[in-house]
Amino acid sequence: MIEIRRNPHPTKAELDALWQLVWAEPAPIRPERAFSLSLAHVGAYADGQLVGFVNVIWDGGQHASIFDLGVHPLYRERGIGSELLSEAIGLARQRGARWVHIDFAPHLKPFFRRRGFGSAEAGVLRLY
């Protein structure tokens, strides 16, 4: 059974363990800082273990962005990513956002298109 929790405040160790499995590196965020900037964040838990996560950042007005959506490899293909994304979008809507933005790798395009995300031209600048 998967439990979806709103604003669960996982520890750095919990996030690092999940990031290692999802992106093969420790989490690049400091939880206390990241959560202080969040509009909302959502965690998926199996037997008390963090197996999925998503963070929603906003501009304080109409725009929110989805960051760090990831699901433990052993728990993929069960709808957890979709559920996390739906919960994050719902929280953004409830808290006043009118637009939700997301960046994703090309191979994830079908996943996000099926969930209603359209295409928009954007730019990105690597600072390091």
The low-confidence runs, each spanning 5 or more residues with pLDDT under 50, are: none
Please name the fourth-level CATH homologous superfamily. Answer: Gcn5-related N-acetyltransferase (GNAT)
* Distance separating the two termini: 41 Å
> How many alpha or pi helices?
4
Helix content: 25-40%
SS-based class: alpha+beta
DSSP summary, beta strand count: 5
Give a quick account of the main beta sheet: strands, pairing sense, barrel closure: 5 strands, mixed
Please compute the radius of gyration using only Cα atoms: 14 Å
**Order of strands, widest sheet:** 1-2-3-4-5
Order of H and E elements: EHHEEEHEH
The CATH architecture would be 3-Layer(aba) Sandwich
The name CATH uses for the topology is: Aminopeptidase
CATH class: Alpha Beta
Mean pLDDT: 92
Number of domains: 1
Tell me about this structure.
With 128 residues, the protein is of the alpha+beta class. The chain has a single domain (2-114), classed as Aminopeptidase (3-Layer(aba) Sandwich). It has 4 helices and 5 strands; from the N terminus they run βααβββαβα. It has helices at 12-23, 31-37, 80-94, 109-114, and strands at 2-6, 38-46, 49-58, 63-71, 99-102. It has a 5-stranded mixed beta sheet with strand order 1-2-3-4-5. The protein is globular, with a radius of gyration of 14 Å. The mean pLDDT is 92.
